[in-house]
Amino acid sequence: MNHCRICKTDGEESDITCKVCNYPLKGTKKEQAVFGAKFIIQKGDIKDSFEYLKKARILLFVLGAMLIIVPLIPFFSPHNNIVLIINIIIGLFFIGCGVLSIKKPKIGLLIPLITVMSYYLLLLIISPYDLWTGILWKAIILITLSYGYFSVRKADKILKKYKYIADIMEEESLKN
Hints:
By secondary structure, this protein is mainly α. It folds into 2 domains: 1-40, no CATH class; 47-175, no CATH class. It contains 6 helices and 2 strands; from the N terminus they run ββαααααα. It has helices spanning 29-69, 81-103, 105-126, 128-132, 135-161, 163-175; strands at residues 2-3, 10-11. It has a two-stranded antiparallel ribbon. The longest helix is centred in the first third of the chain and has 41 residues, at 29-69.
């Protein structure tokens, strides 16, 4: 009986590759090493994706809270109540996207990413000076949301193609 080193599945002695993950059971040491390295890289990409998703989600919650709380502070309070209401609505929108990213990560990050990019484009057209004001924070927000979205998308592709990786990672998380 053959035992797969990657997904721990037992196979028949006649199996050339694992029926679950395609590990070359009867392959050369080099073929097995290449497959193992590819598996480790893909697993690392997925773990990284979870970290970037977590950072992007935290950013959405912090942005949402700041947009709600800061205008309520007397020193920062806008003179126009409409601006205050808009800030609160946008803050709740970002918090809602953060919550959505728990169940639907790609959608939960894509919607605020498109919103932020549209806002920056609008600033570029209407008021370029305001675009450059706080450009570092704007860049951090854009990079964090973009990287979070694209890493989740990459992990999603890997997990769709190699379903066994999700099972292995789930088993590992239960052990830890």
